[in-house]
Amino acid sequence: MRTTTMTITAAALGLTLLSLGCSANGEGKDPQGGKPAVAVEAAPATARTLNQAIEVVGTLEPKFFADVKSEFTGTLAEVYVTQWVQVEKGTPLAKLDSRDAEATMGAVKAEAMQAEVNASRAARELERAIKLKESGLITQQSLDDARSAHDAAVAAAQAAASSLAVAETKLAKMLIRAPMAGTVAFRGVNIGDRVESMGGGPMFRIVDNRVLELTVLIPSARSAPVQVGQELDFTVDAYPGKDFTGRVMHINPSADPVSRSLRVMADVPNPNGELRGGTFVNGRIRTGQRNDVLQIPRVALLSWDVEHNTGEVFVVNGDTAERRTVRTGETTGDTVEVVSGVTAGERVVTRGGFNVRPGDRIQVVSAQGV
Q: What predicted TM-score, i.e. pTM, was given to this entire model?
């Protein structure tokens, strides 16, 4: 605060000295011998297109990620990846000790093969019994017994095949593979670790950083203009001066009962991988445009009641300063919208006004654009 005061005083001193210089040279001096003209700077009230936006802050997170766990309990025999490496979908990450699974599958496979042989034999026996029955060489009971034996053999073969499929699946899943393409953001296991099929943390986390999700909070009172599809421009500290853009994809239909804020989510393309999950951002949601909005520099306001949207300015009226009350609107950067009180083209005092009283003669020493 002390530094700001000194800066303003220095600027004011320059204008005051310029005013005194003009007076000493006879320039700006009242012909009637009155108070000399005060040196000021001024800028015109200008009608422009106003890009409306809502200021927001938020955090980036990966839109797609996967926590990898084992479907079976076991001991890790191999770990193939480290953190921060890129993987494709299906890339092997680790392998459980599969010796028990291999032995089980061997036994089940043998049972399945024997069951298939039995089913084939029973089928041949049933076919033979049907022909003998047609020739009247066996009884109906013998035929029924052959059919029952066939049905039982087929059922046993199907059950064995199912058991074999389960054993093969379990053996295949001893090899832990990446469920998606991305970066290994976390590796929580090493060779020899025992992993559980239920509970516990993830073995790996795979993150797809090509699309990030930006979550921001908006006061419910200001949420009406926000719509799905609007662009959200933002900056991050890691890249000063560089702008990034996302697009609003989801708006929570209910406000938080404590903060009275709505959660808004935007998708952010990140093809080059510059942005990182967990990064804090400052941004603004573009909510629309208004044409012919009258604006003046914010520094022209002598006083400003933000709550009631009113302020006071000095307007250049010929060679005098006229103090007026204005009604203000939206603020954009260093400019303020003026709803009433001045008209387009009228000049407002931007510097030197502290030394002016209503009706004082002034001399505009420089003019600024909005």
A: 0.62
